[in-house]
Amino acid sequence: MNINTLSQQTADYESSKLAVALYPTAMRKETDGKMTYHARTLFRNKLTMENIANDILATGSLTGYSVEQILSVWSVVNNAMIDRVLNGSIVDGGIGSYYARISGSFDSEQSSFDHKKNAIDIAFRSGKEVKELAKSISPVIAQGNSTKPEIVSVTDIESGRENVLTPGGFLDIAGKSILVTGSNEDVGLYFINVDDESKTVKLPASKIGVNTSSRIACVVPNLESGSWRIRIVTQYAKSTVPCRESKSQIFCNTFTVA
């Protein structure tokens, strides 16, 4: 990210470097028999609003403000947006629109909302301006046919659903190059609490029942109620020699523990 562009009325994103990796697409081949590939973003890190506030201050576009003042204003705006969204409004936040989304099934037209079967999440749809800006960016292909782990699906066997986790129940993870293996300290299957990463639970390979390059099955740890994400860290390589550095993948979906 070139933070100097933030102070311009019309940002210039040509200097941005969006890194992506290419992966073989299963069951998809061109007419000539060649394998096709799909791209996934290589996320650099996870930033907080404090990081963004420091970026803004670095541009000089908000003179006289402190990080604390920016965060205070953002907190008020954020809470107001959440209140509107959870009361049925679609809120356009500039980057895109936020709206409430209901998941889970109902038995009849007269059914009531059941927290054990249903969940409310805030969904996001990118706006027209952001889509137009994205068209001007040419991603950097950082890795070719990568052995970076790729999580394709996660299913909670207890409920049969893909957006919840049942503590004590079985979890089935499908993917490519997801075998949890290696001697590095960070290798493992992680359950990350979205609101408080200090509550993250790590399962080492020894605690995983089925552990292969295409499938992982394990017992869901005793997680607290809330929103969770799943991450795999491994040194797996297609050769007999493991990768020297750990590679990781965070699944795109968020899971709810009731």
Secondary structure blueprint with pairings:
Elements: E1 19-29, E2 35-41, H1 49-59, H2 67-85, E3 91-92, E4 96-103, E5 119-126, H3 128-134, E6 140-145, E7 150-156, E8 170-176, E9 188-193, E10 201-203, E11 210-211, E12 215-219, E13 226-234, E14 247-250, E15 255-257
Parallel strand pairs: 1-6
Antiparallel strand pairs: 1-2, 3-4, 4-5, 7-8, 8-12, 9-10, 9-13, 11-12, 13-14, 13-15
Helix pairs in contact: 1-2
Please tell me about this protein's structure.
The protein has 258 residues and is an alpha+beta fold. Helix content is 14%, strand content 34%. The strands form 4 sheets. Strands 9, 10, 13, 14 and 15 form a 5-stranded antiparallel sheet that branches. The chain has a 4-stranded antiparallel sheet with strand order 7-8-12-11, with no helix packed on it. Strands 2-1-6 form a 3-stranded mixed sheet, with no helix packed on it. α1 (49-59) packs across α2. The two termini are 37 Å apart. Mean pLDDT is 84; it is low at 1-15.
Please supply descriptive tags for the structure shown above.
alpha+beta; 4-stranded antiparallel sheet; 15 strands; 5-stranded antiparallel sheet
